[in-house]
Design a protein that fits this description.
Layout: H1 2-17, H2 21-31, E1 38-42, E2 48-51, E3 61-64, E4 68-69, E5 72-73, H3 85-91
């Protein structure tokens, strides 16, 4: 009986931690996961980073993505590239110190304004080819009457 009480307490804690039943359902629909833990920090884009050491290694740190990033509505389109590099280190356990307590050293390859993945959009990177085409398009010959 005591086990059922603990399960019920934990379920109520999860539901309360997401703003009630409506918030918990939206969280489930958005990322298919309900977790509660200690808020470690918020980055400049609004992503919230959590940690719960009761979960096993690799699942003990997570991010709740912001609803809008760089002017794009990202409520239903969450993407791992929305995490800036300084938080990526902490999230993937490369360091135990979050950027809120130990800010990263400024490096030239860390951009001021982090962009998320733009593959499949008009802003994607397309390399310029320096080799000749192997197949050329056919151009009809000009006739003398034209």
């Amino acid at each position: 009986m005591a086990e059922y009480v603990q399960v019920l307490k934990r379920a109520l804690k999860h539901i309360g931690g997401h703003g009630g039943a409506r918030g918990a359902i939206l969280q489930l629909l958005r990322v298919n996961d309900l977790k509660t833990g200690n808020l470690i920090g918020i980055d400049k884009y609004g992503n919230k980073y959590y940690e719960d050491k009761r979960n096993f290694f690799g699942r003990h740190r997570w991010v709740v993505y912001t609803e809008e990033m760089n002017g794009k509505n990202t409520f239903w389109e969450v993407d791992g590239s929305m995490v800036p590099p300084e938080w990526h280190r902490w999230l993937h356990s490369m360091t135990d110190d979050p950027p809120t307590t130990h800010p990263p050293v400024a490096r030239k390859f860390i951009w001021e304004n982090h962009k998320f993945n733009v593959s499949g959009t008009p802003e994607q990177y397309v390399p310029y080819s320096t080799t000749r085409k192997k197949i050329h398009e056919w151009i009809p010959p000009k006739t003398a009457s034209q």
